[in-house]
Design a protein that fits this description.
The protein is mostly helical and about 400 residues long. The chain is about 75% helix and about 0% strand. The two termini are about 30 Å apart.
Length: about 400
């Protein structure tokens, strides 16, 4: 048994975080099971790429307010009272998506509710995993476990949904059934998971709040969008470009590409751990260099429309996601007061999800500005390069300031 950092001092098992981690993985599955079915909906419902990208982005419309409300509320009432109803919402979302073959309205509603469920769980759940990992003796364990849990869901969801969409009967229904089973199991596990964050108090001190706000403004705001920006490009944008060049199995190609791109986020965790050097910006720089490499490869893949290059680009983008997600979570959770951990984590997650708008923005630019995908991806890479330069300068200067000490991203 270990004792958590929460002010309530609740003793928990070293494996107590599994319940919160399972909830993160389950909701991550539900969030990411839709993209591999995009090709199927295009052919069966005749939906345009812009409409489908809008559905993909509608997820963020439900997610952002739920993150902001859920994180703050969980600091007051605890993590379990937020995660349990979120699993129910996630279940309902998959039910709506399962009848989406009858018309796009069901898909819009399902994606919106999937966003609400994700918003309630991702910030709150990541904070919960961190609290339940306090006895591990390593500040990086909680963020690493949360990253792996979410990434397992992000990888397994599209892979299983894509396989079912390719070969199962009633594909637009069957693809969502595994997630319904997982949410039911997750509800039981979460009900039995200890909640050391319940009743942690009113909030952080003024000094802590000021330091965290400055860190968010100077470092997290320009960094966070690239976390899910890379994932969104690899999941929702690139595979659809080359799916029809993948022979007779476009759905299988999309499912495998999305799953592999997400799964390498787990494989990337040893790299993230090796790059982490307290008191330096090495982890941050590594993450942004991977973002640049992934976007550069994506632009090349979009130019030649090679399925093999699309997979390669998705792998690099997946590694970039895994390293950058760990970097951002570690950065925020090290600075946040335990009494505002849910709020800080949720605010960080909101900023990461700005990147989910990248595919929709690029689709609009293609339609109205007649820009080509390779050009748009190069523009995105240019913006990432500017952000990288800013972050290197800012974090280098902050390391020399004894008043902020270890407030850098590592």
């Amino acid at each position: 048994m270990v004792v958590t950092e929460a002010s309530t001092r609740v003793a928990v098992s070293p494996r107590a975080w599994w319940g919160a981690g399972f909830a993160l993985a389950t909701v991550g599955w539900g969030a990411n099971q839709f993209p591999p079915l995009i090709v199927l909906y295009q052919s069966r419902l005749g939906l345009s790429a812009t409409v489908l990208d809008a559905m993909f982005g509608l997820y963020a419309l439900g997610l952002v307010p739920a993150l902001l409300v859920g994180g703050r509320l969980s600091d007051r009432v605890g993590r379990r009272p937020l995660v349990l109803p979120a699993l129910v919402v996630s279940f309902v979302a998959s039910c709506l998506l399962a009848v989406g073959g009858a018309g796009p309205g069901w898909l819009y509603a399902g994606r919106l509710l999937a966003g609400v469920a994700s918003g309630l769980v991702f910030g709150t759940g990541a904070a919960w995993v961190k609290e339940l990992s306090a006895g591990a003796g390593d500040a990086g364990v909680g963020p690493r476990r949360a990253t792996v849990a979410m990434t397992v869901g992000f990888a397994a969801g599209p892979f299983v949904a894509g396989l079912l969409a390719q070969w199962a009967p009633a594909a637009t229904v069957t693809a969502y059934l595994p997630h319904l089973v997982l949410t039911a199991a997750g509800t039981v596990l979460v009900w039995r998971t200890p909640d050391p964050g319940a009743g942690n108090g009113s909030g952080p001190s003024t000094g802590t709040r000021s330091s965290l706000a400055r860190h968010f403004l100077l470092v997290i705001a320009p960094f966070a969008p690239w976390v899910f920006g890379t994932a969104a490009v690899g999941v929702a944008y690139l595979p659809a470009l080359a799916a029809h060049h993948a022979g007779r199995q476009p759905l299988l190609f999309t499912a495998v590409t999305v799953a592999v791109g997400a799964a390498v986020g787990i494989v990337a965790q040893p790299l993230a751990r090796a790059a982490h050097r307290p008191g330096t910006n090495r982890l941050l720089t590594t993450a942004m260099l991977l973002v640049l490499a992934g976007l550069g490869c994506a632009a090349w893949a979009a130019h030649v429309l090679s399925p093999a290059l699309v997979v390669a680009a998705s792998v690099i983008l997946g590694v970039a996601y895994g390293v950058s997600q760990f970097c951002g979570l570690l950065s925020v959770q090290q600075l946040a007061d335990p009494r505002s951990l849910g709020t800080a984590t949720a605010t960080y997650q909101v900023l990461t999800y700005v990147g989910f708008g990248f595919p929709f923005g690029m689709s609009l630019a293609q339609t109205h500005l007649h820009a080509t995908p390779p050009v748009l991806l190069l523009i995105l890479a240019g913006l990432a390069a500017v952000a990288t330069g800013w972050l290197v300068v800012v974090t280098s200067r902050r390391r020399t300031d004894t008043r902020v000490g270890s407030a850098g991203p590592d």
